């Protein structure tokens, strides 16, 4: 067939001189060669330039004009045009080497890929090395900016002359099979070169339609990175829009963008993220209690995601789903966002590569600073930041309460600086005033809780839906490898115990646990010597363990130990009923070994047993009423971290005292 392959025709019209390039005074063809089958056409020229330089510098250098040697190679078979040039003048003092390349776009042959690069090496120049470098950079930047305008000018000129297309090159049936080249002298006329299958004008349309405004340097970075992926990456090559996100995330630093993009592509392949939307089925718990969803678009055509974080039961979701499932759900949200961006790009006829997120914080309180939940949030942010850069166009945070500065202190260090600049935060009802929500979202798509009509579900997750760490580990999900919570069984006469060694006094031991079954008594003890364990646990060297069908059970306090002599109680006993969630902390006064103990709670008046501990465990397996189950999480904040936390708290003097203590418990990662 035929196509408008006229870029090389337009390019040749620059010669022997071009009124659109004032510094380009003249040129002459030194040699022209063509392969016998006509597929390769080469032209060598000598170009005369009047460089825009200070007259004094020209007098010192002893020249009025600068000469360059240029070689153009048109490969009609491969549909490429390569242009290489270097300076002849002052080549012993300054080395300038420039490469330009036109090629057909791999996804659409009617689009052009253009790549340009140059190098400058100044050995010496009469003491004006710095001046020459600045002049060269100025001239090069100017030529890049002007290049596309000139091509378009001559393309339009060809169209006005009635030349709108030329046949695509095909080998002649009687053409020789050899690749020999013939040489012939020719005059430098405007029409010596046949077409190459690239259309620069359509390339500009493609960029404008799908990618947005790009400088020539940014275009070059995109093409080079994509070509590198095509040559070296084994697997699915992402679309230009996605490659561009990684380049923008690293300010078009090719090496840095390539590194994070390759890591992300490996991650996507390892976890089959490309198929997530087809394979992931959202659990019913998320459908019922996750207070977020996609909702129309903002005024700029960006997909709009609405999240009522203040109404979300983060603890319940983590306990019912586990971090892995919650991460899968967040990833599916991001994958859906990418799909919606592509869809909106087609609908609105302009590039849309990111989305807007509206977060309502009404109801946010200390409950949302539940430490394992915050830790899960930080890890999710880390994964999203690494694999979905430059996807958040704007974040509207509404009705931020007084507790928000604490959550922001925890989260902000994990968010890229460019992303943080896109945050707009409104306290109270400020979003209703000038510069508020109506500036970004049409009134008819504002959700009901902000005065619109969109309905959002949510609520507390019932504890009956909570699952143990073992149940969560058995799921075939492996985006993360570690589990926050441990589960343990507590039997009548056989408590579960955890030891923590403290080196520095004034460290803080923190704990968080749920009583899933039965009632327990929680104790905290201190001992100067390490507990003697009846049997070494291969997984946790400092613990002994009794593994039963009911779960893990570890006992550390030897029967021969005497309370008040071998060990002491440092926290008052706490009775915890079935279904309760307990969080707490203890500031250590001495180094040594601290033992957290969950003990079966015997109602007053009940007979106690004198059976040995192990025997009691075996006996209690036959009596379900003598078994309790807990899920727990512990962590130690070092004394240095604790002092830093205390300093941070001074910035919030109006907080209730209880809130301050909770803040001490939760803030370490921030």
UniProtKB/TrEMBL annotation:
A molecular-function term among this protein's GO annotations: RIG-I binding
Pfam family, one: CRAL_TRIO
SUPFAM superfamilies found in the cross-reference section: CRAL/TRIO domain (SSF52087), CRAL/TRIO N-terminal domain (SSF46938), Supernatant protein factor (SPF), C-terminal domain (SSF101576)
UniProt GO BP: negative regulation of RIG-I signaling pathway
Annotated CRAL-TRIO domain residues: 282-458
PROSITE patterns tied to this protein: CRAL_TRIO (PS50191), GOLD (PS50866), PRELI_MSF1 (PS50904)
SMART domains per record: CRAL_TRIO_N, SEC14
CDD domains assigned to the protein according to its UniProt record, in alphabetical order: SEC14
Taxonomic superkingdom: Eukaryota
GO CC, any one term: cytosol
Residue span, PRELI/MSF1 domain: 1-163
Domain called GOLD: residue spans: 481-636
Protein name per UniProt: SEC14 like lipid binding 1
